[in-house]
Description:
- The chain is an alpha+beta fold.
- The chain has eight helices and five strands, in the order H-H-H-H-E-E-E-H-E-E-H-H-H.
- Among the domains are: 3-65; 96-176 and 186-204, Alpha-Beta Plaits, CATH 3.30.70.
- It has helices at residues 3-15, 19-71, 73-92, 100-118, 149-160, 203-206, 318-343, 353-362, and strands spanning 121-127, 131-133, 136-147, 167-174, 188-199.
- Strands 1, 2, 3, 4 and 5 form a five-stranded antiparallel β-sheet that branches.
Amino acid sequence: MNLRALWELARRWYAEHSARDRRIIGGVGIAVGLSLVYVGVVEPLRGYRRRVAEEISEGHDRLERAARFVAAVDTLRAERAELKKRLAEAQGRLLPGDSGTLAAAALQERANTLASEKGVSILSTQVMREEAADPFRKVAVRLTLSAELKPFAELLSGLEYGPQQLSIPFVEVSRRGAVPGAKGPRLLSATVEVSGYLPAKDKVKEVEAEPEAGTEGTPGGPEPSGPGGPEGAPVAGELVPGAEPGLLPVPLTPPAGAESAPLPIAPAPPAAENAPAVAPPPPVAAVPPAPAESPPAVPAAPPPAAAVPPPPATVPPPERRARRDRHAARPRDRTDLGACVAAGRGGRGSADPGRRSGEAREG
Length: 363
């Protein structure tokens, strides 16, 4: 493409128009050029400046937030330390121990110590069932007490306002009347239930994952038998203990559905290398072995025969049987008829004389 030729062609095309048309064409060209400059240069620059301004404003906002956070670091650290202190105090007011058993033991020890200080007798102690109170666990102990009114009240006050967060949800107090001749009234008999709390997150340590039943074999149990039968059964091709070396092993009875499978035969023992030639012994009369010394080889059980189709019916159909009986009766009838004719007792040519005379008289 020759640019000079194109330029000359454009000049000739432009010169061919009148002055008015040339002014119009010039104005249109200037407008198109300005539009291209605006779209290709001005608008991208304006968009870039707009994006930069937005990023600058966002950066200023982040800086302000970071400055406020940095200024509040000391305050946040103080609040964090205060919260940790309060958490430690709250955990100290809970029952010690990682399980309900240890917590109940600590609760009993606390009650026994306080009762001995106040002069209260503890007759019996009963550990109640553990209850879930999210996010804690409730551990309770029921005590049977015997004391005067003032020591009993001091004991209850010491349990409720002690260093640990304990509560008394159940109290039952009774006193019998005065004994005649006694100097004072009888002691109080009270049943008090004291409960405390334990963090629930420690329950995860108490409950361990139990192994799945049946995934592991019992130690010392019987090993599974190999494919082919129960343990201890002779395998095909294995010599039977106590049998003579010349006898073949007894093959196993094939299982159902294996009629076509060939029975395994024990291969003959390989001959020893470089064995000296031994002359065969003289023939000796075969003597059956004694049952006590070596039992005879048990013959192999024959495999179950394949399904044999039932034999065809020998009884012919009724029509064929009747036809065959008629064919067989014809020679027999001929033989009987011939015998009768020879004896003069029947036949078409021989008639009874008495019958003939009777017919003649009738005629």
